Amino acid sequence: MSFKSINYILGVLEKQAKWQEQPFQRLLKFWPEVVGPVVAANTRPLSIQRDVLSVATSSAAWAQNLTFGRTSLLLKLNKKLPTPLVDIRFSTAGWQNPSVERKPQQTVSPHEHPSYLGDEISRPDVTPPKNVNAAFGNWTKIMRSRSHGLPLCPQCESPTPPGELQRWAVCSICAAKQF
User: Is the model's pLDDT at 19 over the cut of 90?
Assistant: First the structure.
């Protein structure tokens, strides 16, 4: 019985571990090195089935662009894999960026909106208009009743909800013009 050094035994075990390592696990390790950091940030290898690599992309534009260059990418990958790949398929299916958590969309009740005027505004009874002039007349009555008693915008002097003046110091139209 011969004794082997620990270094020799560890070397043999390391080689066996590399032989037993699945091709997909090996690919995941060197994917960023082969494709580069920008492409790696916008792609995610999903699986290898029947020697075809499936890769999720962050957008259809990335999928199309990488599909055009898949032959050169296939050559680079096959140099590092024990069993060569036949093809690569790029798709947006399966793409979910785990680093960006989706925040639930906040809902704002009408009472919290800066343009909220309150429930005290009365709506005049409006009968269906008989012609265009009557419809315009009804609309002007409604607009006058809504804006009666509202403070004026300091820039354009139009009636403005108080919440808008508190938030922007001007009406929403003048605030939008500033941006």
Answer: no
